[in-house]
Amino acid sequence: MSGPRDAGAFVDVGLTGQESVDTHSGRGAHVEVSRSAHLVGQGHGRVRGATVDRVTSTSSGKWAGTYAGILAVLGIAFVFAPAYLAGGHYGGYGDNARLVQSMRVAFIDYSSSGSAVLPDSLKTVVDYWARYHVAKAVIAALALLVMCSACRRLWASYQDKSYQGTSYQGTSYQGRQADGRGRTVAYVVAGLTASLGTITAAALLMANIQGAIAPLSSAVSLLPAQRDSSLAAAVDAVRHGIDTPGASPVADHLVADFARYHVVVAVLSAVFAALLGVLAVRLWRGRHPGLNGGGALSYSVRGRSATATAAATLTVAAAVLVLCVANISSALEPARALSLFFAGG
Question: Is 245 in contact with 334 (CB distance < 8 Å)?
Answer without folding.
Answer: no
